[in-house]
Amino acid sequence: MAEVLDVVLRLVLVLAAFLVLPLLVGQVEHKAMAHMQSRVGPMYAGGFHGWAQLIADGVKFVQKEDVVPTAADRTVFKLAPAVALLPYLVVLLVIPLGPGLVGEDLDVGLFFALAVMGVGVVGTLMGGWASANKFSLLGGIRVAAQLMSYELPFVLAAASVAMAAGTLSLSGIVEAWHPWWLAWQVVGGLVFFTAGLAELQRPPFDMPVADAEIVFGPYTEYGGLRFALFILAEYAGIVVLSALTTVLFLGGWHGPFEAQLGWLWTLLKTMVVAFVVIWVRVAYPRMREDQLQRLAWQGLVPLALVQLALTSVVVVMQQ
Q1: What is the pLDDT of residues 71-98, one digit of tens each?
Q2: What are the counts of helices (DSSP H) followed by strands (DSSP E) for the chain?
């Protein structure tokens, strides 16, 4: 009975994090962009520091009409937002918050997380294909191109950390982490973070939703709550990417008084990385499609292979 209650408690905590953290990231993005770009609305909605902006957005989405295009594949069109969002909930189950604080500590937690994150991208592909809209289809094709290009450096960078730690368990990787990894795994960390941004289609890698070229890409025909689910999936993806970057490259729960405050260090590091994601959106313009592909194949893949080779040498020398 105690074991069942423990499992239920962990699932409830993961669900609570899934419901709260993406909304918190969305609110932080509103405020950060308001300060950085002098946006008036997000700073004044509701009064004190624009506290009601997120609520106003939610009310707006609820009030919008839910329209399905006549020529669309209705089943796939309706399923796409859920397919885009739910995989990130599953990934949160295997990301450790502190020592022993994890929904399910899998021995292959790293590869499980990377594989499930890829499923989230499929939801965007489904939306683009099922919309019966040429702009949505072009956006979906761009999503597929980015997935094929950036999945390789994403996995290679993560494999470098797994090789250094000698385990695929995310908790095991955090336990094996040492501060000096910040120096010799920094290239892999930058590759992982950059490739993750591209997989989430976050600026400057938001070519699939380039509004000046293809309206809003795979999301053009979506409105109301279904569109809100896609936006929520984006913020959930930011949380998952930031948490994985924290666990793999920033030491997870390691910090002062980690036995008592390990969960707090993980959350703080995750939110700092999420803020960097927002900062990058504000600071850098959208890339062209050829620039995006060139960065992946001529930049990130070679760097990831160099990091993997360096890790191999260091691991062999330590044996």
Answers
A1: 888 899 989 999 999 899 899 999 998 8
A2: 14, 0
Query: Which amino acid, residue 102?
Result: V
pTM of the model: 0.92
The string of pLDDT tens digits covering residues 142-197 is 888 888 889 999 999 999 999 999 899 999 999 999 888 888 899 999 999 999 99
Separation of alpha carbons 41 and 283, rounded Å: 20
Query: What burial letters (b/e) apply to 218-248, b meaning 16+ CB within 10 Å?
Result: bbbbbeeebbbbbbbbbbbbbbbbbbbbbbb
Q: What are phi and psi of 103, to 5 degrees?
A: -60, -50
Q: In 10 A of CB 137, how many CB atoms?
A: 18
The contacts of residue 113 (CB under 8 Å, 6+ apart) are 91, 94, 95, 170, 240, 244
